[in-house]
Design brief:
about 160 residues, alpha+beta, Elongation Factor Tu (Ef-tu), domain 3, 2 domains, seven-stranded antiparallel beta sheet, elongated
């Protein structure tokens, strides 16, 4: 599926962006609620993954504070957005450190794969928020050990 054209948006509330139907509908019609997005403002761009939400006749995506800060926008600014097909395995990019740890532990990998997609994404987002590769590895190892202990609750999986 080809990417949408760039279109102008702004932030509604604290972190929602309303996506015009003409840009979102082709993805929804194809059954793709999880999409890859790129936001553009002045000379900057930020790529991220998100979900198209249909509520009260509007289609929205979440554009959190982290992305707002990276792009340099506030709720008063207008910026451009482009939607693309999400071809990632988990609906988000897997941090290399987490992927490497899972690749070295077949049992933990199989247990991770048995989790729901939402739980997998939550764990991936959790690992991705750490900038240090060593911290990502350490946190990944904790998750793997907890998976092997039979823990499947995300809040408990991240505890040491």
């Amino acid at each position: 599926m080809k990417p949408s054209a760039k279109f102008e948006v702004n932030i509604t509330g604290t972190h929602a962006v309303i996506v015009p139907h003409e840009h979102a509908q082709p993805f929804l019609d194809a059954g793709q609620t999880r999409v890859a997005l790129t936001a553009f403002y002045q000379e900057k761009s930020v790529s991220f993954h998100g979900k198209l939400h249909e509520r009260n006749g509007q289609i929205t995506i979440s554009f959190g504070k982290r992305y707002q800060k990276q792009l340099g926008v506030s709720t008063q600014d207008h910026f451009e957005l482009q939607i693309e097909e999400d071809t990632s395995k988990y609906g988000v990019i897997m941090p290399e450190a987490f992927e490497a740890v899972l690749a070295t532990d077949a049992t933990a990998f199989n247990l991770f794969e048995a989790l729901t997609m939402g739980k997998k994404r939550s764990l991936i987002y959790y690992i991705d928020r750490f900038k240090s590769t060593q911290t990502q590895v350490d946190k990944s190892l904790v998750i793997c050990e907890n998976l092997k202990r039979g823990i499947i609750d995300v809040k408990e999986l991240i505890k040491q």
